[in-house]
Model the fold of this input.
Amino acid sequence: MTPEPVPMVEAKKLVKHFPGVFAVKELSFSVGKGEIFGLAGPDGAGKTTVIRLLAGVMPPDSGTATIDGIDVVRDPELAKQHLSYMPQRFGLYEDLTVDENVRFYADIFEVPVALRDQRIGPLLTSFGMEPFRKRLAGQLSGGMKQKLGLVCALIHTPKILLLDEPTTGVDPVSRRDFWKILYGLRGEGVTILISTAYLEEAERCTRLALFHQGTMAYCDTPANLKAKMPGKLLNIASPEAREIQKRIQSLEGIAGALLMGDHVHVAVDDDQKRIPEITRALSEAGLPFEPVTVTEPTMEDLFLALLKKKETGS
Done:
């Protein structure tokens, strides 16, 4: 019988407490080779703490974390040889050029001199950074700085990449390019664990953990998580979307109403029954709106609906 492969990343009953708050509560999960595993949730959910615990930056109060089978708490230096950790504010030196930053990190990671040029050139080329080798890091755009940070993090060819909200504040085009790079790394067998507050971005992960108040509320593929969406989701388009959101909150069968620009996404128990009731209530209120339709849930819709379901136990 073939033995089960050892997880590349594994947490068992991790606990981390700060004064007045449990940042991480009894957290357990594992990540296989070549996965892009996402930690998604709002600010303060505990995502950054989890990444830091796995990177060996801080010790847990209890529980274990392993990287490629190595206990991070017992042997953090050995574990760090197998991973690369890119925090929210990666430590680039803005008064150094792109090339100088990469070579500095090659020194930190003790990459042999004979291998540096073999690694630096191809990495900069694949990330579209080759034309900017002589540019000061401080003169790069936000998206380019994140790409440079990723080049520096990959210079020692890690097996595991820990990324803490790497696309925060990055423009949509650069964010898309960043994800293309991550998919390329996954194709090379790199295991990626990424935290994000952008729920629509989280859908790009192969598997996703939804975090809330230090706990993992749900963990599955994005498709399987969407299948857990209770009831149906309705879409109401209106120039008075905010007023519509307020009006329908008290109607029967409404699980939640989320404002999405000039649309309102409404979670209901039964679309066949609730669409006529909502239409009647809004018409009687004299509010302008387009016909109410059933729509596919976004990850934000899903997160809010599943969280409410978990809290109510329904």
Observations:
- The CA atoms of residues 141 and 292 lie 42 Å apart.
